Structure to design on (205 residues):
């Protein structure tokens, strides 16, 4: 799947949520903040972090750091998708949105898992890329939707019957998803640091 296809899918998904433009705007604002923070971290640490330190025993790219990060990312995504599906897929008339969109709505729940590739991408010296930004944006959207959601689901399409949800699990999912975003912010900074270090090494050679 190339970048053009990914962008087209993202735009189509955004069109489904067109009525929720404040949420989409909030996601873009948060993305901007993540970009600023990650670039700030990269600028602050670029003189202290070298290519050699990125491969040292204490580096976050070593096995223990990667495993810890992967566990945080995976647990947050698994619990997050469960809560999102409970509230925004199996509640009320949402199943019809999935059907009428010909499955496109499912990308809201599936594509955030692409963020798991951030670890291997950094290890293999690849770029962060547009697809991972889209994945991160959808995770931010998850957080906003969960924070602003009601603590119940509708048991029928007419929105008459209600069933309370487990608020504790929803809050745990929100906290873990925030941790997910923080971890990814650090790794985005590492992408930048590695890029700057590589350019500096090339200039010196």
């Amino acid at each position: 799947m190339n970048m053009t296809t990914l962008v087209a899918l993202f735009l189509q998904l955004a069109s489904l949520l067109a009525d929720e433009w404040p949420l989409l705007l909030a996601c873009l604002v948060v993305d901007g903040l993540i970009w600023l923070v990650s670039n700030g971290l990269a600028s602050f640490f670029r003189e202290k972090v070298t290519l050699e330190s990125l491969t040292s025993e204490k580096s976050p790219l070593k096995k223990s750091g990667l495993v810890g990060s992967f566990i945080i990312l995976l647990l947050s995504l698994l619990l997050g998708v469960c809560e999102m599906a409970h509230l925004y897929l199996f509640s009320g008339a949402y199943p019809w949105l999935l059907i009428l969109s010909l499955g496109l709505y499912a990308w809201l729940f599936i594509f955030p898992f692409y963020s798991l590739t951030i670890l291997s991408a950094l290890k293999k010296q690849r770029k962060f890329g547009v697809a991972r930004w889209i994945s991160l944006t959808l995770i931010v959207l998850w957080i906003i939707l969960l924070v602003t959601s009601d603590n119940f689901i509708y048991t029928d399409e007419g929105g008459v019957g209600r069933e309370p949800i487990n608020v504790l699990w929803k809050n745990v999912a929100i906290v873990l998803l925030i941790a997910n975003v923080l971890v990814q912010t650090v790794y985005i900074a590492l992408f930048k640091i590695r890029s700057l270090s590589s350019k500096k090494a090339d200039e010196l050679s």
Notes: The beta strands are 152-154, 162-164. The two ends are 37 Å apart (CA to CA). The chain has nine helices and two strands.
